[in-house]
Design goal:
Helices cover 4% and strands 46% of the residues of chain A. By secondary structure, chain A is mostly beta strands. Chain A is globular and about 50 Å long. Chain A starts with a helix and ends with a strand. The N terminus and C terminus of chain B are likely disordered. The chains are: A mainly beta (363), B mainly beta (740). Chains A and B meet through loops of A and loops of B.
């Protein structure tokens, strides 16, 4: 069921090249999909939530796509993934399992399973080790790519409702929403620092805000965690927790992130894209601690009701900003493309409904 | 059937019907579904004209509709008949066929006596079978129910054209039925006129219906709000329980099989009195236990291999009682029933629960009064039902323990009159329904009670010519108002039909509706789900049905009959669940287009004492909106079934197979399709005469080829399993076909 249009396109391109360059020294080499186009090597990846798959597209030719299906079960509800090299770890949500995907071959190589619960966050520790979170089980576990068993072992209990994981310098940082069994807030969110070798907890630090679900490291080595807050609050609760490079002291909490901010991506210059489920994407300069585009003037594609929301956003290597719109009954899901300097909306591409977890990489 | 078209082509095909044909159809007019509010009933006996001896196993076909067989004393009964003029055709081995023309009024219970003249020619042995030669309607009589070998109503309905049965849990787990691609809460399931559809979800758990307690099942496809009001958007399954007067005798049955199944049932019926006054009574009950644990293939996403489905046990107990009195134009019947179910709720195979349990208790009663004078009839039905369901999990794996309950008190009442003057008959009446829900799964906005009311009016004009030709025109409308309906809703229907010598062609136009369920509007918000109090009622607009019926014809020494139906409709604001940006699922209104085709062919092969039937249905249910595209998820385009029954050396061998086509799992996506599958069952039966009664022994294998696939991948179905059954019947309470 995989979409393999790239194969046929590649073959056609190769055939045409061979025919048109018969007097040259030989046919032009065919390009692997992950190489991107000649002019643009970037590949975009996101979860296709409507079809339960990982969708890859070439930024140089956005309609050239490859899709890796995960199965027909209703319990397969991925919302994010982690990439290292050409391998991806994809937690499958309610399926309580994790797919190991070879992006080059477009195949699911292995599946690792929790006993139950809900597999959410994931992060690579090195080329052969990954840590994954179980949102309902309130724990994280370790995967060795070449382990004999499919079971996820080395379980470590963490603060309830872990939703995402980051890895840096031999440590992993687990972001927990800190919700009770009825999904009500127990207290502020928590970052749990773990040694992935011993799986011992090194530290637990509050995020100083409600329901954190996403985080990213900046070029300053600081950890930035987004406190989403309630989705439908009377007043906006979004904030950004900024940890020191050592991540060993309570963070500085920056309020004013608006209503329900979520996924965050930070470029080498320190610009943070924080996408909100309610208003679009803000651009925050972590170096100057100032908004470039704040919640009142976010990156957003207009609609009849104002701004489209943003499921995620990411920087391309050419500096442009790609933003996903989730889609609904009246508006199709799209990728919005913004100029990275003027922040003007320059283009859009239709995509399947319910995208999440956008990443842009070169392989 | 050799019929295949895509949705667009289907629409084009309908649009391309020659104009002259549409003119003819529309100018004729006919009814069929547009008739009265209360179906008529026919019972009687067939005897030898020379000796007066009863004629068992005679075939009685009513109006080109249902066909039943006479029982041991030549008696028969047919329920769920459309009022109006119909032809009764009675055939039996060694007798000349006899044809009678009857006029049945609204809700009439008619008794007829048929005397057959012996003939030197031999007619073929009849194999019990249900046929679909009334437009969109299938009648499964007592014999067909018994011959199916099904353990419950879900098994009986699976494989019927255009129907899809979805079962969750174990082999005795909850099951729902959907019709023509609709949701389960768009199929109205009635037990003696009382909706079984759940107050919270709007769908009916058909696994709770005891088959031995049923006298007949009438399946009506397509919207029928003009007759039944809300919820009848995709079709109606009307169940008629055994009751006082439907038989005279006793029976005792037992069944055991794989997955720890064991159970039994019994009934006794009797009547006394003479021509001026007659009393009758009926008492029945049954128990069924299923351990439920069965092996299943674990999907790759959960590690592969096999596992055992646990916590799928079920205990069901039921009892029914009824009394009837009839005297000079007055008929009074009262009935009561009780149901108790305790069963595990294993959940999905990913999030299994070993401790979740459901308990359900239902008690109900009702009555029916019918007064007749000349061509005027007045019928009143009333029923009360109290149902309490509890859902408990003391130790779920990954959430807090819960103890939820839902209690529903339902009162229903119907009253109507009908009168026939010459070729015209008119019906009018009133339906009322009161619902009082209480439950911990409903939020504080839930209304304390809901009240619904409907007024209907219908008229039928029928003209006959020759011995068997007819043209019939009907018009009907029903107005409904009440809780959750919004503005009063009018559900009209126009229909026309014509036929001769059993051939018939019918066309209808109708509209129907269904309000949002209490669950969609008011259920307690939970994880990843959110109710939507702003939902609008679903409306089916401009539904067009075309049906052609071919009566039994001799083809190469066999008797072939067939029917073909096509339909299309616009469904405005159909309620479907989709996620929002945070993957919180909630119900919303979507515009859908529904179109399809259903066909069925039955072939009797007298020389082999065999019957072969094949049906297929194509159902295209696609989004009409600008964003959501393609077939609605989890709805197969194609379904079908085939059955074969052969009488051999006194045994009855039967086999049936049903096909469910590929289903989408993503909106607008062809990825991750659920594969098509075929499930085949086989059974063997032998009946023995013992004095005034019969003993029947049966055995069967379900899922003969051990297919491990299922409708929903997270709710696996059992693989191959066996069962054996026995039934002793005394007096007239014998059923099925005798081949020995």
């Amino acid at each position: 069921m995989q979409t393999r249009s790239f194969t046929w396109t590649s073959l056609l391109v190769a055939a045409l090249a061979a025919a048109g360059c018969s007097d040259s020294s030989g046919p032009a080499p065919t390009r692997a999909f992950l190489d991107g186009t000649t002019s643009n090597p970037d590949i975009g990846l996101f979860i296709n939530g409507s079809a339960r798959s990982l969708l890859l597209f070439q930024l140089g030719a956005p309609n050239e796509r490859e899709e890796i299906p995960f199965g027909a079960s209703q319990s397969i509800t991925p919302v994010g993934f982690a990439v290292r090299g050409h391998m991806a770890i994809v937690p499958l949500g309610d399926a309580a399992s994790v797919n190991l995907v070879d992006l080059q071959s477009g195949e699911v190589v292995r599946t690792f399973t929790f006993p139950g619960g809900n597999a959410t966050g994931s992060a690579w520790v090195d080329d052969t080790t990954a840590i994954v979170a179980n949102f309902l089980g309130d724990y994280v576990g370790r995967i060795y790519l070449h382990q004999a068993s499919d079971a996820i072992t080395d379980i470590v209990q963490v603060t309830p409702a872990p939703s995402s994981i980051l890895a840096r310098d031999g440590r992993v940082f687990v972001i927990s929403s800190n919700l009770d069994e009825n999904y009500q807030q127990i207290a502020d969110g928590v970052v749990t620092e773990i040694n992935p070798v011993t799986m011992n907890i090194v530290d637990t630090i509050t995020t100083g805000g409600r329901d954190p679900q996403y985080g990213a490291f900046g070029p300053d080595n600081k950890l930035y965690v987004v406190n989403t807050g309630d989705f439908f609050p009377s007043t906006a609760q979004g904030s950004l927790a900024v940890y020191s490079a050592a991540v060993d002291t309570n963070p500085t909490v920056i309020d004013g992130m608006g209503n329900a901010p979520g996924p965050i991506a930070i470029d080498a210059g320190g610009r943070a894209l924080i996408s909100s489920f309610s208003y679009g994407t803000v651009v925050y300069n972590t170096a100057t601690s100032a908004f470039i585009k704040g919640p009142d003037t976010p990156l957003c594609a207009p609609s009849t009701e104002g701004c489209r929301t943003a499921a995620d956003a990411s920087f391309a290597s050419d500096g442009r900003i790609y933003q996903t719109f989730f889609g609904d009954q009246n508006l199709p899901a799209q990728i919005m493309i913004y100029d990275g300097t003027t922040y003007a909306l320059s283009d859009s591409v239709s995509i399947p409904l319910f995208p999440s977890g956008l990443q842009i990489r070169s392989f | 059937m050799g019929v295949r078209f895509s949705g667009q082509r289907g629409a084009a095909a309908i649009r391309s019907v020659p104009g002259w044909l549409l003119v003819v159809l529309v100018s004729l007019l006919l009814p069929l579904r547009l008739a009265a509010q209360f179906p008529a009933e026919l019972e009687g006996s067939v005897s030898d004209a020379s000796s007066g001896a009863p004629v068992p196993s005679a075939t009685v076909q009513a109006g080109g509709a249902a066909a039943v067989e006479t029982r041991g004393r030549g008696e028969f009964s047919i329920r769920g008949l459309e009022p109006g003029v119909l032809t009764l055709l009675v055939t039996a081995l060694g007798y000349h066929p006899q044809r009678l023309t009857l006029t049945l009024s609204n809700g009439e219970h008619r008794t007829v006596s048929v005397r057959l003249v012996p003939a030197p020619i031999e007619l073929p042995t009849v194999v019990a079978n249900a046929r679909t030669d009334r437009p969109g309607v299938t009648v499964l009589d007592r014999s067909a129910i018994a011959a199916s070998g099904s353990a419950d109503l879900g098994g009986l309905l699976a494989g019927q054209p255009g129907l899809l049965v979805e079962r969750r849990g174990g082999p005795a787990g909850a099951a729902t039925v959907s019709i023509r691609g609709g949701a389960a809460n768009q199929a109205l399931v009635l037990l003696d006129g009382v909706p079984l559809n759940d107050a919270l979800t709007g769908s009916a758990d058909i696994s709770l219906v005891s088959l031995p307690a049923l006298d007949s099942v009438v399946i009506q496809r397509g919207g029928a709000s003009d007759r039944y009001g809300s919820r009848a958007m995709a079709g109606v399954v009307a169940l008629y329980s055994r009751r006082a007067g439907s038989a005279d005798g006793a029976q005792l049955g037992g069944r055991a099989g794989a997955w720890g199944e064991r159970g039994g049932d019994g009934s006794i019926s009797g009547a006394t009195g003479g021509e001026t006054a007659r009393w009758s009574g009926h008492l029945s009950g049954g128990v069924r236990h299923v351990d439920g644990d069965f092996p299943f293939d674990v999907p790759a996403v959960r590690g592969g291999g096999t596992d055992v489905r646990a916590n799928a046990a079920s205990d069901q107990r039921n009892a029914q009682a009824g009394l009837g009195y009839a005297s000079r134009g007055i008929e009074l019947r009262v009935r009561g029933d009780w149901l108790s179910v305790d069963r595990g709720m294993p959940g999905t195979i990913v999030q299994q629960s070993l401790t979740a349990e459901q308990a359900q208790r239902r008690v109900g009663g009702g009555g029916n009064l019918r007064l007749s004078r000349g061509s005027l009839n007045w019928v009143t039905d009333f029923a009360v039902q109290h149902q309490r369901a509890t859902f408990v999990d003391t130790a779920p794996q990954f959430s807090a323990p819960y103890h939820d309950s839902l209690t529903a008190l339902t009162l229903t009442g119907q009253s109507g009159i009908d009168v026939a003057v010459g070729p015209v008959s008119v019906s009018a009446g009133l339906d009322l329904r009161y619902l009082r829900p209480r439950g911990t799964t409903l939020n504080d906005s839930t209304p304390a009670s809901q009240t619904f009311g409907g007024l209907y009016l219908s008229g039928v004009l029928r003209r006959s010519w020759g011995t068997s030709g007819f043209v019939q025109l009907s018009a009907a409308a029903r107005g409904d108002a009440g809780s959750g309906v919004g503005d009063p809703v009018l559900s009209p229907r126009l229909s026309v039909a014509a036929g001769k010598a059993g051939w018939s062609l019918a066309a209808s136009w109708s509209e129907s509706f269904s309000p949002p369920t209490l669950g969609d509007l008011f259920f307690q918000e939970g994880v990843q789900v959110r109710a939507n109090p702003d939902l609008r009622p679903e409306r089916v607009r401009n539904e067009i049905n075309l049906t052609a019926t071919v009566p039994q014809h001799q083809v190469l020494g066999t008797e072939v009959s067939a029917s073909l139906s096509a339909y299309r409709a616009d469904i405005d604001d159909m309620i479907l669940w989709t996620p929002n940006f945070a993957f919180v699922w909630s119900p919303g209104n979507f515009d859908i287009a529904r179109q399809g085709i259903e066909g069925e062919v039955t072939d009797r092969i007298p020389v082999l004492h065999a019957s072969l039937g094949v049906n297929a249905a194509y159902s295209d249910l696609r989004y009409r909106g600008p964003v959501y595209q393609g077939q609605v998820i989890y709805r197969p385009h194609w379904t079908g079934a085939a059955h074969l029954e052969v009488g051999l050396l006194g045994f009855r061998l039967g086999g049936k197979a049903r096909y469910v086509g590929v289903r989408r799992t993503g909106i607008g996506s062809g990825l991750n399709l659920l594969p098509a599958f075929v499930v085949a069952d086989a059974q063997l039966a032998r009946r023995f005469r013992i004095g005034r009664g019969t003993l029947e022994l049966t055995a069967g294998i379900d899922n003969l080829f051990d297919q491990r696939t299922t409708l929903l991948i997270d709710y696996p179905s059992p693989g191959r399993g066996w069962w054996v059954g026995t039934r002793i019947a005394l007096g007239q309470d014998r059923q099925g076909t005798e081949l020995n």
